[in-house]
């Protein structure tokens, strides 16, 4: 057992030599060190957002689990936010990670991936992000790239400022920052309307069909993450996959890189990228648009 101090917070660290990624040799110490070093870039994207943890205490070859509720044994300085999910779920106290110590503590708990809400603590009922989740049909990343360009241009035509990110899993996320002035249902409705329009414009390549057997090799425009209670992988989160890939924000110009794929960046190369490149999403929320502005633009273009 060792300890690390971050200002007024002390984090106890244990079993840092435990292998979490057997094929690559990455240890829990590597994961802890990564989240320590990435904090300056990552924390602005987590600030005040409820989280769901994807934990693998015994490494990715063992069964992991998702954890929504803040554990009773978490330190008092690691805050939570109570959200009423309704139904059988009821009230859940989600973790909030607003500082470096929180990231390090969660990594020491085997939380490899952090999934964030699309809303912040102060306005939990109103998202300030709209997201399209694009996974390749049958591994066709070129179609994901093409669909991402179409979504990005459609968002710009409506007055939004799209941002793109590798998911570290299979595909890409396209995200538009919003003013937190509309409900989850309203934002999901806007995203669905835009998705339907794009699918109508490119019927041979895009679809909004949820059933896999109905997609016929087309790219599914997934907007379901815009619903209340849904989460999306946080920027700079490690994924529990061989190679330890990292969800990485991109410049739009990088979409044309033919070496780009969903797992392009990982624990082995992400630090070098950030040492030479400013976070492309640093100014994301300066470009937030009113959902009502998007709605009017969509109506005018009908």
TrEMBL record:
The keyword Endoplasmic reticulum does not apply. InterPro entries: LigD_pol_dom, NHEJ_LigD. Keywords: Ligase. One of its GO terms (molecular function) is ligase activity. CDD domains: LigD_Pol_like. PANTHER family: BIFUNCTIONAL NON-HOMOLOGOUS END JOINING PROTEIN LIGD. This is ATP-dependent DNA ligase. It comes from Marinobacter halodurans.
